[in-house]
Amino acid sequence: MSTLLYALGRWSYRHPWRVLVSWLLLLALAGGGAALFMKGTDNSFSIPGTEAQEGIQLLDRSFPQASGTSAQLVIVAADGDQVDEEPYAGAIDDTVAHLEDLDGVIAVTDPFNEMVTGMVSDDESAAIIRLQFDGQATDVSDETKAGLEDVAHDLRDTLPEGSQVAMGGDLFSTSVPALSLIEAVGVLIALFVLIVTFRSFAVAWFPLVSALIGVGLAIALIYVSTAFASISSTTPMLAIMLGLAVGIDYALFIVARHQDQVRAGVDPEESAARATGTAGSAVVFAGVTVLIALIGLGFAGIPFLTTMGIAAAVAVAIAVVVAITLTPALLGFAKDRVAGWGHGRKARGIALRGRRSSAADAHETGTDETGTDGSGVEGDAAVPTSPAAAPAVATTKKTNRWVMLVTRHPWVTTIAVVLTLGVMAIPAASLALALPNAGQQPESSQARQAYDLTAEHFGPGANGPLIMTGTIVTSTDPLGLMEDLADEIEQVPGVKEVALATPNETADTGLIQIVPETAPDDPATAELVRDLRALAPELEDEYGVELLVTGFTAVGIDISDRLGAALLPFGVFVVGLSLVLLMIVFRSVWVPIKAALGYLLSVLAAFGVVAAVFEWGWGAELLHVDKTGPVISFMPIILMGVLFGLAMDYEVFLVSRMREDYVHARRAAAEHSTRSRRDIAVGAVRSGFTASARVVTAAAIIMFAVFAAFVPEGDSSIKPIALGLAVGIAVDAFLVRMTLVPAVMALLGDKAWWMPRWLERILPHFDIEGEAVERELSLADWPEPHATAAVVGDGVAVRADGGGSAGEVVLYDDASFRLEPGGTLIATGDARAARAFALTIAARIAPTDGRLRVAGHLLPERAAWVRAHVGLALLGDGEDRVAALRRALAGKTTLVVVEGVDALDAAERDQAAAVLRDAASALRASDDDARLTLVVTSRTESAALALLADAHRPDVTSIALRSATPQTTTTAEVNA
């Protein structure tokens, strides 16, 4: 991965206009597609497999007048007046007639109809006109909505002064979120932080431009997808939040690495390639963790939430791709003008403490690589003293003093952080969840006014009536049956009244409309739904009718219950994923456990702050929270998923440097130091923290600013999510990662990097910090500059897991060889060693030790290229061995590995020799300088020499493969 990104970064740097124009063209195409094909967002919530959804489907089939969305017009008479008297009664009759004429309206309930109850308040000061529409809220046209508002406006003008008229109901229960100038403040704060971090106006724009292009493309694609998928209005806003935050941060990591390298004197082009290969690898890993967490939102089994997760994942994926391509391209525009203020050409030669501190640097500054002096005495980390580097020195000293304080008192720090986060998490116990309704909209909204008026004059339950429905086709007295069922249901605690109980026109389906005593988002209403469902079997036994509880409120309750049930498995998935991924990255058991526990503390603290604001009302007015109460149902699962990915970002960027310094310092100490491994580990924590804290701090501040900007004027659905993410980022970055992590790492010492050998063997390796790039750069002149060898190896070895109690098996060990173009290398050994050697040279398996370069490419870093260009003929286990050799020589390849030539009989050897002669002749005919190079393995040298003599290949070099352990691994296992 890192070598691929290294090459990509170099190419992007060299061709900046191509990259920039390509992204702008993609953005323009996606924007044009959105303008042509988008159909708007869909805020109808459905949840397959639930009773509420089953009830809606029943009503769709047999009672369409009651299956669609609804609205209600609330009329409140002036003080002292009654709505059943003139001029109110006549105006209401006229309004009912006008509403019935609107397109899409299939039923209008007159509040004075004798068949319904509860539409006129007890004191007759208010009335409700209820409307039923054909289809869900998204099916109601804008023209119909405008007609409703016109009718309400006309009625308002007709009625006496002091009366109130407001249009609300399910149709208006959700608002479409929109961006405001407040969100732009977050972007401006991000720009300011970038300017301070980079100390350059020009460079500061790069992460912002990268993020904005990525977000623009993602949003355009989301709107294009509305042509064939249902997308809620919350989805684009979530994608904007995440896309901006991660887009800026991912580009920031790459640009910061590049700037540090250029200040240290690295050529800008080389630096851009290295930064993309190293920091870019970490960006890809971080992005993958966020993607997995977002896609994991499908755990809840709720279509709109799954779609939301996929859309947000697309935004993050685009942010990653833009960061690793457009960022180096923008650096290509800047060339060498990226050092920043105080770091001009003269200062560029100053060796700022960069990613790879050398022993020589440490010697010159009087400290070792761990941030301590040569004797292990703690002190300030080595920092440059040049005036040009003064800002960096100040920042380094501050972070070094902080980490020194934390690691000197690890127990006090750990207990203080855990107690602080525990206190912050206390309000989380009272966090209630519900779908958004009009009661959470701003007080200026007409829908909110209708909600409040309804609650005031008819009780809070009138804003969220429940429906019970069922098939009554077997009843001989449908009207009497519905009356009996209504009488039974009215006895259930929590039911204020049954507003309507009626069969449909064909008398095969019954409908009971129930008005609860409590509001739609009140936990008591959810309990009433459960009580009614528990009563349904008794009613079926007595009346022979299977009743289903449904309606907009019941759907919302079912969604909340489903989401609540999904939190635990999703949490297990996320935490389990973090453990596995971090074990792969850090090759440690305790570091992932510590990271996962820190993540859980951050999540609980974020939940606690959200509950304190939205449930308890702390700071609600300051944050423009119009109404306290339950937060949107999918806030917890989205917060957990997104915060997981972002928390892993900070963990990786901080702890990977600590591990890197620990490994380097331990190697150095093994040669010329008597310091204990614990001292080395604690020193690595300090030096790693000091080196990475600046970038992590900037990234966290930027993310906090972007998320926090969506809180003051944000939509009621987005506001709690944004607040939770902002708090979670601040807590995780500054309290957990930059305070708790170094303290716990100091407590663990060198045990932090412990992992059982069996686990080490089975876990795959992920080059998170671009070690492959660093290895390639360090071996760029090996075996010598501009080497001509086709194959060269030094101390190459391959080990495998012997299984069971056999432990590690050395297939071959300490193989050193060199083969020039046109020559032949014979490697002899047992069948297992010969097969392993052939697969190693052909890049099918990776060497576990030593250095190996094939066709000019270092292995295993360039294994993909070698596999594509080096032929491999496995003769030891094939029936048609000559055909296998022909396939390996196809495509005019110049390097071929032939395994198991001793398996050839006399006739096959003659044919194989002819094939080799023909291939060599064909290469010379196509290019005078092209020569066929062979690597041949065999159990005996004589068999290989016989073949090569017949093939007219006299230039032969031989090596004997040494296997250091008994043969317990079969050739088939090596091949696998």
Automatic annotation (TrEMBL):
Pfam families registered for this protein in UniProt: MMPL
Transmembrane segments: 178-198, 205-231, 237-256, 277-302, 308-331, 411-435, 566-586, 598-619, 631-650, 691-711, 723-748
Positions with biased composition (Low complexity): 378-391
Residues covered by region (Disordered): 352-391
Main location (coarse class): membrane
SSD domain segment(s): 208-333
Membrane-protein topology: Multi-pass membrane protein
Keywords: Cell membrane, Membrane, Transmembrane, Transmembrane helix
Cited InterPro entries: Acrflvin-R (IPR001036), MMPL_dom (IPR004869), Mycobact_MmpL (IPR050545), SSD (IPR000731)
Record localization: Cell membrane
Record keyword Cell membrane present: yes
Annotated PANTHER family: MEMBRANE PROTEIN MJ1562-RELATED, MEMBRANE PROTEIN YDFJ
Protein name: MMPL family transporter
Species of provenance: Microbacterium arthrosphaerae
